[in-house]
Structures are given as C-alpha cells and as structure tokens.
Amino acid sequence: MTRATILGAGVAGLCVATELIGRGCAVTVVDPAPEHGPHACSWWAGGMLAPFCEGETAEEPVVRLGRKAADWWARQGVPVIRQGTLVVTLGRDRRELDRFARRVPQHRRLDGAALAALEPDLGGRFERGLHVAEEAHLDPRAALRHLRERLSQAGAVFASAPAPGAGLTVDCRGLAARDVLPDLRGVKGEMAVLRSADIRLSRPVRLLHPRFPLYVVPRPGGLFMLGATQIESDDRRRSVRSVLELLSAAYALHPAFGEAELVEIGADARPAFPDNLPRLSRRGDTIRVNGLFRHGFLLAPALARMAAEMACDGTTPELMHADHG
Questions:
Q1: Cα atoms in the Cβ-side hemisphere of radius 13 Å centred on 165
Q2: How confident is the model over 61-105, as pLDDT tens digits?
Q3: In what order do the strands lie in the sheet with 3-7?
Q4: d(C-alpha 43, C-alpha 27), whole Å
Q5: Mean pLDDT of the 198-203 span
Q6: How many Cα atoms are found within 13 Å in the side-chain-facing hemisphere of 147?
Q7: What angle do the packed helices 11-22 and 296-313 form, to 10 degrees?
Q8: What is the pLDDT of residue 235?
C-alpha cells in the first residue's frame, strides 16, 4: 500500500487526498490548523464551476479540464447546482456583452423577457444578457467540510505535522510553497458576503464592466457572495476602495443589495505562476501541486487526478513542469 502525506488541507490538498484514498493509498493530511477556516485561500472562493466563462481570459486547458469539475464534485456527494451562469451588463456597457459573447461561444442570447423568465428578480433591469447553460456552482465551505468528513470516514488521518518516514509527499501548500517554488506569486482577491430576503437568484450572475466587473453567487440562507477583484499582490489586507467598488456594483445589479446585511468581508492571495496555469512537478519522493490561481474548485479535481496517477501509475501528466529546486 502506498503511503502518502498531503501538505495542505485546502481545496487542492483535499482533492488530492480524495483521489489517492480512492486508489487504496494510506493518506495523512497535514495542516497547521485543525479545521478549514479563514486562514485558507479556498475559504474565500466563490465556488463557481464556470469553465466557459473563465475561458474569456483563461488558456484552453482551463476550459477543457474544468468541464469535468461539476461531475467530479457530484461524485463525491457534494451538492452541485447546475443552473448555468447569467451574464449581464449595464446599458452603457453594451459593448462589453458583445465582446464577452465573441470570446465565450457556448452561450444563449437572452432578450429582456427571456432574462426575466430565467431570473424573475432581475426582470425589467436588463434589456439583454447571455446564459451559459452548461455551468454550475457549489458552496465551497460546505464542499470542503464534506470532503474532510468523507476522508475521515475512509480512514484518512489529519495531523498538524508530518510523521517521520511518511513515504510519498504531495505538497499542496499554495503560497506557503514559495520556499521551493520561487516563481509562484500572490494574486489578491477580495470578497463580501451579503444577506438579503428581498432578492432571489438561482445561479451566479456576472455583471460585466470595463473597470469593476462583479460576480454574485447565491448561497443557502439568503446569502450572496460578491467577488471580482484581482490585484497583483500577496497583501491580505481588505481595502476600503475594493469593498466600495464591490458593493456599488452589487447595488447597480439590483438596488435591494443596498438594504442587505453585510455579513462578512474577506481577502486572500491566490497562488499563481507567471502564465496563470497550474503545475505539477516532482523531485524525488515529493510531488508538488500548485498555481491554481482563481480556478481552485474548477481545476483541483483534474490536478488531483493527475497527481494520483503520477504517484500510483508513474504517468507523466499534461501539466508536468520540470522541478529544478
């Protein structure tokens, strides 16, 4: 039986642990924190499984590999909501919608009536939009809690430090791995969580804007996660300016957000390589999985499968990168 120690209990680490334990490996997951929480980058994720929309700016592997993510999460027993993504823009920014449509061909164009039928609470607010039907979303915090519980039931051990003679090591530490991955950089993302009983959405909504794009992801209990910011920095401080931009964009999407309860504001730095694509590398008995950028829940399943195949079958994965460290 292969023994594997996973460093990091974020989305990458838990997905790798799931793939390895499914192949009969003895798995220990090492993380300084006893539970998933605000210290983890994936705590602040939106949970959108939107490969086509991400393909507006992302490279081809993000779209191709990300298309399998929703099915992977569903196979683990995580509730996946498959209602697609709605893309809208304010009237003065119509060219943004046309530009997006050219880059994301997997859409259906909506007029005002069709948009209102899809999301009644947005009826009358937008003359047109795009529906990318083959996309999904999940609650990221609930998903990671579920993976931890499932791994524990399957015999995985959670520890605060690695044990001697731990066998194979899979390093999924995110930015903490810059000690061995010097070209890893932080990309700051800020988010807010609102609670409102005055608006209902069935799917993530992307509000296009040349300067302040916004996505709103509905969560259970009348909660909405707002996100958009992408700043070249590993500074985790929450800025007033970014939060104001997020809230102003949400108000522009629907005025009901102006009366919503501000539940939470957060920020973290996502690990990314210069090309914004994730990488796997191997040196001796250590495999490294990193650089998920803004695509953690979308690409972690594919990277986890590649890491497990490398560990158990000796294969060379698509996103393999030479390790000179």
A1: 0
A2: 999 999 999 999 999 999 999 999 999 999 878 899 999 999 999
A3: 157-159, 26-30, 3-7, 168-171, 286-290, 279-283
A4: 22
A5: 97
A6: 29
A7: 40
A8: 73
Residues 185 and 275: their CA atoms lie apart, in Å, by: 11
Kindly state which CATH superfamily the domain 3-65+138-181+276-313 is placed in.
Answer: NAD(P)-binding Rossmann-like Domain (3.40.50.720)
Q: How crowded is the C-beta side of 298, counted as CA atoms within 13 Å?
A: 28
Q: What CA–CA distances, in Å, run from 40 to 31, 197, 225?
A: 10, 29, 17
Higher per-residue pLDDT: 5 or 163? 5
What digits encode the pLDDT tens for the residues 235-260?
777 778 888 888 999 999 999 999 99
φ/ψ region of 206 (left if φ > 0, alpha if ψ in -120 to 50, else beta) reads beta
Task: Tell me the Cα Rg of the chain.
Answer: 20
The model's pTM = 0.94
3-state SS of 112-153 is: HHHHHHHCHHHCCCCCEEEEECCCEECCHHHHHHHHHHHHHH
Question: What pLDDT is recorded for position 159?
Answer: 95
Mean pLDDT, the chain, rounded, equals: 92
Specify the CATH architecture of the domain 85-133+185-272. 2-Layer Sandwich (3.30)
Q: Where in the chain is the domain with CATH 3.30.9.10?
A: 85-133+185-272
- The residues of the chain that CATH labels 3.40.50.720 are 3-65+138-181+276-313
Mean pLDDT of 100-111: 96
Question: Would you state the pLDDT for residue 229?
Answer: 63
**β-pairing, 223-227 with 128-132?**
unpaired
